[in-house]
């Protein structure tokens, strides 16, 4: 049974349907914060903030990878095959990237040059 | 140019870019949800779809986009839409009943007339259906997607009221039955005893469900530390456990050797005495009565009586009583303006949501081609799928077609191995795929 790329998008949208308003609000907040980041760019120390967001993302990825099987009602011992591990690691990486990207503007606005 | 004007320019560009991305996403998403085919077929045809289950709504969604000017009438009195693939998870305590219930209004396509009534008779010679409310509805084309009926009365002593009491369970076919089954199964898991897990002769919907219920309850007994106190029997009506040969061979060894579940072949359930907790099976050697502490009853199933005893059913042969369709085109073999889909059709395999997903575009495209006077372009190859849950947290993703050969969608998932990934698919993803199917998007 094949799934087209648009079909995959359709399924993902259905999956996120219950939380779409929350995701929309989150995205709007992120855009607003990024606007602030751009506006204050001259006062900001970018490199430490990017490193900080990366650390947050990595921690988020690890926690997500550990939590995904438990969230599905399974125990980590039930990850038996390569595909299971790839799925969990892939899910963790995806969530970690999202967490890192979302956290960046918040971290960035906290890392400023002294006035 | 000063730094401040550079910043202002950068900020304007960023904001403009963000707005463009957001706008494109919204338009793209909206078009994904509302777009139609490049060129719909213009017609004033009147199409009746009997049944608003998985097949009926999926086909209605596709037809509403593929046809311009048609009158499409969906006839079904049910306001609630049931996600039936989730009932096994409700019956084994993994899901709550609310997760399988939704509203048909959420999925009924725009531009489709919804008649809240039920078709009780079909006069195919005169292109008419009659409803429970007494109406006669004419059609140019008919799609029969009524589902099947569960015949509790074909087991002496059995009725749906027994479910949840005296150790009786039955996952079919609504959340109330499934929830009550979990109540009865929960007591069995706590106390142990003899558990009987049955399967009737003939086609049933989700043929894997009786097996899944058996394995999930066995797993629950293990988790509870009560497995030693439980004796489990799986009782098929004949010599087979599953239609796909590799899985059949696997289960015949796996059940007794890995799960300590005895297989009592040739044991179709014929009667039940809930007060005495006795079940009688019509074996080739004569009636065999077994005592039980828990019994999972799977009643015989058939097409609705109007099909089973009417003109649209197979009149003889292996699929007698089920809707007589060409197993590839889904067109009725004697009434070319009638199509069938879902559990009601008499085909060698099917009766799963995965089959409906494969059938819906076939029925829609072939019906549109018939309206347009063209050759039917699509054929269903019998694709069906069963995420065979072997325990909480693991499953085997079994997919096959008319050839009975495995047809995995994901080459990296071995269908003969238990994985966590198919469990995750079943538990978290397939409901979303089902909803996308209802909207005609996959």
Can you describe this structure in just a few lines?
Chain A has helices at residues 5-16, 20-39, 46-71, 82-110. Chain A is mostly helical and 115 residues long.
Features:
heterodimer, A: 115 residues, mainly alpha, 76% helix, globular, B: 442 residues, five-stranded parallel β-sheet, 24 strands
What this model shows, in words?
The complex is a heterodimer of chains A (115) and B (442). Chain A is mainly alpha-helical and 115 residues long. Chain A has one domain. Helix content of chain A is 76%, strand content 0%. Chain A is built from 4 helices and no strands. Chain A has helices at residues 5-16, 20-39, 46-71, 82-110. Chain B has helices at 3-34, 54-66, 87-91, 104-107, 175-191, 209-224, 245-258, 305-308, 353-371, 420-438, and strands at residues 41-42, 46-50, 67-68, 71-75, 80-82, 101-103, 113-115, 119-123, 128-131, 136-138, 141-144, 149-150, 168-169, 193-198, 230-235, 261-263, 269-273, 278-283, 286-291, 294-296, 301-302, 338-340, 384-391, 394-400. Chain B contains 10 helices and 24 strands. The longest helix of chain B is centred in the first third of the chain and has 32 residues, at 3-34. In chain B, a hairpin with a 4-residue loop joins strand 17 (269-273) and strand 18 (278-283). Chain B is α/β, with parallel strands linked by helices and 442 residues long. In chain B, helix 2 runs parallel beside helix 9. The model of chain B is unreliable at 1-11 and 20-36 (pLDDT under 50). Chains A and B meet through helix 1, helix 2 and helix 4 of A and helix 1, helix 9 and helix 10 of B.
């Amino acid at each position: 049974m094949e799934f087209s790329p648009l079909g995959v998008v359709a399924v993902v949208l259905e999956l996120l349907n219950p939380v779409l308003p929350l995701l929309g609000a989150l995205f709007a907040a992120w855009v607003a914060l990024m606007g602030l980041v751009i506006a204050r760019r001259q006062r900001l120390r970018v490199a430490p903030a990017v490193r900080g967001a990366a650390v947050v993302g990595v921690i988020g990825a690890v926690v997500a990878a550990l939590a995904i099987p438990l969230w599905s009602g399974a125990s980590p011992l039930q990850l038996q095959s390569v595909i299971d591990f790839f799925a969990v690691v892939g899910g963790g990486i995806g969530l970690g990237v999202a967490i890192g990207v979302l956290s960046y503007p918040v971290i960035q606005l906290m890392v400023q040059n002294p006035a | 140019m000063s730094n401040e004007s550079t910043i202002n320019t950068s900020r304007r560009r960023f904001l403009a870019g963000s707005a463009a991305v957001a706008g494109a996403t919204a338009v793209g998403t909206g078009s994904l949800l509302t777009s139609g085919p490049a060129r719909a077929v213009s017609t004033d045809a009147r199409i009746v779809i009997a049944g608003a289950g998985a097949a009926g709504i999926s086909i209605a969604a596709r037809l509403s986009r593929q046809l311009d000017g048609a009158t499409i009438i969906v006839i079904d009195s049910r306001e609630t839409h049931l996600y039936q693939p989730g009932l096994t998870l409700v019956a084994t305590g993994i899901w709550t009943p609310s997760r399988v219930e939704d509203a048909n209004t959420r999925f009924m396509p725009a531009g489709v007339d919804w008649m809240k009534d039920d078709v009780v008779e079909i006069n195919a010679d005169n292109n008419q259906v009659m409803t429970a409310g007494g109406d006669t509805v004419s059609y140019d084309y008919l799609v029969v997607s009524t589902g099947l009926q569960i015949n509790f009365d074909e087991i002496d002593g059995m009725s749906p009221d027994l479910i949840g009491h005296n150790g009786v369970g039955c996952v079919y076919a609504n959340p109330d039955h499934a929830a009550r089954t979990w109540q009865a199964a929960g007591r069995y898991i706590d106390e142990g005893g003899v558990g009987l897990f049955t399967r009737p002769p003939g086609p049933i919907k989700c043929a894997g469900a009786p097996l899944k219920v058996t394995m999930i309850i066995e797993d629950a007994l293990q988790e509870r530390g009560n497995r030693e106190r439980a004796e489990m029997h799986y009782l098929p009506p004949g010599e087979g456990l599953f239609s796909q040969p590799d899985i059949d061979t696997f289960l015949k060894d796996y059940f007794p050797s890995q799960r300590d579940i005895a297989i009592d072949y040739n044991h179709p359930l014929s009667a039940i005495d809930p007060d005495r907790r006795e079940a009688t099976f019509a074996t080739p050697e004569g009636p065999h009565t077994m005592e039980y502490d828990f019994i999972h009853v799977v009643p015989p199933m058939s097409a609705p009586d109007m099909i089973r005893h009417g003109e649209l059913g197979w009149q003889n042969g292996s699929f007698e009583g089920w809707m007589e369709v060409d197993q590839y085109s889904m067109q009725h073999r004697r009434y070319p303006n009638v199509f069938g889909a879902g559990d009601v059709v008499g085909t060698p395999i099917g009766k799963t949501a995965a089959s409906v997903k494969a059938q819906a575009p076939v029925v829609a495209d072939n019906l549109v081609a018939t309206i347009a006077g063209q050759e039917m372009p699509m054929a269903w190859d019998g694709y069906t799928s069963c995420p065979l849950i072997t325990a909480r947290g693991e499953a085997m993703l079994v997919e096959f077609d008319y050839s009975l050969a495995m047809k995995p969608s994901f080459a990296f998932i071995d269908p003969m191995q238990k994985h966590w990934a198919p469990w995750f698919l079943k538990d978290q993803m397939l409901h979303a795929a089902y909803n996308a199917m209802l909207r005609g998007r996959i």
